[in-house]
Design brief:
It is a single chain. This protein is an alpha+beta fold. It has a domain of about 80 residues: 2-Layer Sandwich (Ribosomal Protein S5, domain 2), CATH 3.30.230.10. About 30% of the residues lie in helices and about 20% in strands. A 5-stranded mixed sheet has the order 1-2-5-3-4. A hairpin with a 2-residue loop joins strand 3 and strand 4. The radius of gyration is 23 Å and the shape is flat. The termini are far apart.
Length: about 160
């Protein structure tokens, strides 16, 4: 809008300025790695990725040792499979808090975010699959006067 609008007719013909879509750029540290933090339940995972042969290290141990169950390893590999980048990146992960299932979900979330930081064009594919969304479900807190969060003590008439 170049000038001032003096009537409603001028307002009808005026077009608002188009806002540019956000541009996602590659974010790398000095070692050439992309970093992201993923969260799920009480678990927090810090994930670094760099081009390599597909070596995965979780808390200083191999992936097969730390996540022994195949289902947990499958959860971790989902973002790489969807992006068709299996065995193209070396992953270094530190994860803490929660149980193994929550940790696997946190690593998947962090890996997805790190992939977007390394290759911004993968954002659409990963977002469509829901890997960039933090799963906000957490355990409900215990209430006083209850056995658990909602479970009451067993009623007895006598």
């Amino acid at each position: 809008m170049t000038g001032t609008l003096s009537s409603l007719q001028d307002l009808k013909g005026a077009t608002p300025p188009a806002e540019a879509a956000p541009q996602y750029v590659q974010k790398l540290d000095p070692q050439g790695r992309a970093y992201a933090t993923g969260k799920r339940k009480d678990a927090v995972a810090r994930v670094w990725i760099k081009p390599g042969a597909g070596k995965v290290t979780v808390n200083g141990r191999a992936l097969e040792v730390y996540f022994a169950r195949p289902v947990l390893r499958m959860i971790l590999q989902q973002p790489l499979g969807v992006a068709k980048r299996v065995d193209q990146y070396d992953l270094t992960v530190t994860v803490a808090g929660g149980g193994l299932s929550g940790q696997a979900g946190a690593v998947r979330h962090g890996l997805s975010k790190a992939l977007v930081n390394f290759e911004p064009e993968l954002r659409g594919v990963l977002k469509k699959e829901g890997f960039l969304t933090r799963d906000s479900r957490v355990v409900e807190r215990k209430k006083y006067g209850k056995k658990k969060a909602r479970r009451s003590f067993q009623f007895s008439k006598r």
